Amino acid sequence: MMRRRELLSLAVPALLHAQEKARRNGPATIRAVEVIRVEGTRKYEAGDARRQHQVNPLHVYEEHRPAEYRETARPAGEAKATALYLRIGTEEGVEGLYGPIDIEAAIVVYQQLRPFLTGKDALAGETLWDKLHRSNRHSRSSHFMMAISAVDNALWDLRGRYYSTPVYRLLGGPTRKQVEAYGSCLGHSVEPERMRKTAAEYKRQGFRHQKWFLPWGPGDGPAGLQKNVDMARHLREALGNDADMMFDAFMGWDVNYAVQWAKQVEQYRPRWIEEAFHPDKMESFAALRRATSVPVATGEHFYGRWEAMRFLQAGAISVVQADPEWCGGVSELVKVCHIASSYDAQVIPHGHNVHAALHVVAAQSPMTCPLVEYLISKMSSYYWFEKWDPKPVDGKIPLPETPGFGIALDEAKITRRSVATWG
């Protein structure tokens, strides 16, 4: 067995090297916080229009309920493209970049967080998050928390570039070489034959887990309920027994409706029913979970670890879908994962973006974080301005080895770049 002196002889040089590197790198003092607007034009191929609506809370009103959707063909063409990215630069020349970000978050960053961040230590992530959260009475939710999320994610990218390593290594290192993605089929037609064909094709491409969006709710009466039940039957028949299917009701149902649906589709073994109710209605989620064997999921509209904790304590959900673009960034999503693991619940982040979610999931146990969400239609153009597109190959996304999140803008696609300002 190696003696203590021999161990020290190996450890001391490594420690001294790390200390020298830290002295050489020096501090990272925030100098600039900018929202970059990039614009250009992208081409798209001919194909299905993919504008199938999903049920939403307003559909209880007849005048807000869309007509039955029928898929139409879309010719090839061009479209204007624009995106917002948050750039945080330091006095020492290290930068962090994150995006695309929502305009609601960008406005708060520019008007309220930018002055606060200037002069702060970009490496003090926990301190900065806590101070940002304490800096405004409205920070607990909504657009302010979305802005904190954008800043937190950009700072993680900065720290990755500072230490020349991917974010998932800063979070503890990879638990796998690639992360499996579930295919999220928002906008895809749910006409039975089209849906069956699409589901089978995506399974062939490697999407062994698929989420489909239910278009009907209480306002559509018994006929609509039956169509929602039939969707589960058609998908199970198309996917076979060796694939998962999930369903999203986007806050458009009530408890009685959800229980009726769940009881009828239990035989088709959905992996979960997502966001059947508004997140304020925690008791509705708990009642549904007690009433059915179909796992219950929600959380894309959770703003912080505290909401996740309350739902888990109430036994209301099996799957937490906290979104690092909205819940408080990478820093907060990691805390949500730790809380969820103590309840033996899974965290499968909502896929508004892939970058941050991919790195968090990659650094967590596959028991807690088995999947990331990949919105198939949205992501086909979402990263238009970026050189690296986090795209699944055979249903799995390989982990990048580039520093930070690996986000780099493709100058060849940008026709106009500007620094966005508001007020």
Question: How would you explain this protein's 3D organization?
Answer:
The structure is a single chain. This protein has 423 residues and is an alpha/beta fold. It is built from 13 helices and 15 strands. Helix 2 packs across helix 4, helix 7 packs parallel to helix 8 and helix 8 runs parallel beside helix 9.
Primary descriptors:
15 strands, four-stranded antiparallel sheet, alpha/beta, disordered N terminus, 39% helix, 423 residues
Total of helices: 13
Strand percent estimate: 15-25%
Number of strands: 15
Distance between the termini: 67 Å
Question: Can you summarize this structure?
Answer:
With 423 residues, the protein is of the alpha/beta class. The chain has helices spanning 4-25, 103-117, 125-134, 142-162, 167-170, 192-204, 221-239, 255-265, 282-291, 305-313, 329-342, 355-363, 376-382, and strands spanning 30-44, 47-48, 73-74, 77-90, 95-98, 178-184, 209-213, 244-248, 272-274, 296-298, 319-320, 346-347, 372-375, 396-398, 416-420.
Topology of helices and strands:
Layout: H1 4-25, E1 30-44, E2 47-48, E3 73-74, E4 77-90, E5 95-98, H2 103-117, H3 125-134, H4 142-162, H5 167-170, E6 178-184, H6 192-204, E7 209-213, H7 221-239, E8 244-248, H8 255-265, E9 272-274, H9 282-291, E10 296-298, H10 305-313, E11 319-320, H11 329-342, E12 346-347, H12 355-363, E13 372-375, H13 376-382, E14 396-398, E15 416-420
Helix pairs in contact: 2-4, 3-4, 4-11, 6-7, 7-8, 8-9, 10-11
